Amino acid sequence: MTGGQAKGGGAGRTRTLAFWTIPLSLLVLGIKLLAWHLTGSVALLSDALESIVNVVAAIAAFVAIVYAAKPADHDHQFGHHKAEYISAVIEGVAIVVAALLIFKEAIGELFDPSMPTDVGLGLGVNIFASLVNGVWAYVLISAGRSMRSPALVADGKHIRTDVVTSVGVVIGLGIALATGYPIFDPLIALAVAAHILFAGWQLIAESVGGLMDAALTGDEEDAIRKAILDNADGSSDVHDLKTRRAGSAAFIDFHLVVSEDMTVGEAHDICDRLEGAIKKAIPGSTLAIHVEPEGVKPHGVRVRID
């Protein structure tokens, strides 16, 4: 016995946030290119290179979120939710590419360092871009987590790595100016690149987990069990509980044991009650409840009903 999936009310907001990330990323890119042009700093150039990747990633995230929101069709009967995970993997790869570009520029400058010029103005421009990025990263990550949008969270984390890059750049240039040794400029760029590379790897690993049908969190499964225990009156057992997460959607499957003498209508009423309670506990969930008579040997994860 199955239940339909409720549509997420935050889909429109998710698309809106993803869309505005594109012009915002272009604006930040322009500001950082200006900072590099004013100073000639390889660290600022590495920062701008990462912002180019941000623009590409923002476009990919928007396309994925729009596609993921499409309703189920004949060829994709469980919906298009996993498109967001694909976008998140792409963003992770983009972060790694940005780190490698920074490595390339920084290593080249390491053997022939030069002191940047007009550093004060360049840093001021770069700091402004970082503030814009920092605020927007917080908005995207918070909204993405609340609406269970992997693409939006990935986009926010990507932008947050850009903020870390900028902080590293400011520190590197500050040390270079204070000591008179320009080599600190590429050295800090290398350190920032290493951090970005690690962040990209983490994002790829998390996103691949979603593509591999990772189960719901322990807290979510506890909420499901509580909903079952509180609303399964009339049945004698629940077993073989399975869950998986696909973007904003959750898929829940379990077996419901009832008396052999129970009518189909009575069993259906219990399923309706369980479905309503579980969807309230786990918004956006789709259920498959398999009704079976007493006497069938249970297997899998059990939820005891006393």
User: Given this structure, which CATH class of the largest domain is correct?
Assistant: Mainly Alpha
Helix content: 55-70%
Major sheet: arrangement of strands: 1-4-3-2
Q: Can you tell me the number of structural domains?
A: 2
Low-confidence stretches: 1-9
Describe the largest sheet.
Answer: 4 strands, mixed
Our estimate of the beta-strand percent is 5-15%
Order of H and E elements: EHHHHHHHEEHE
Provide the structure class.
Answer: alpha+beta
Shape estimate: elongated
The DSSP helix count reads 8
How far is the N terminus from the C terminus?
23 Å
How large, in whole angstroms, is the Cα Rg?
Answer: 25 Å
CATH topology-level name of the largest domain: Alpha-lytic protease prodomain-like
Calculate the mean pLDDT score and round it.
81
CATH architectural designation of the largest domain: Up-down Bundle
CATH homologous superfamily (4th level) name of the largest domain: Cation efflux protein transmembrane domain
* Total strand segments: 4
GO biological process, one term: intracellular zinc ion homeostasis
Organism: Martelella lutilitoris
Domain Cation efflux protein transmembrane: 24-212
Keywords: Cell membrane, Membrane, Transmembrane, Transmembrane helix, Transport
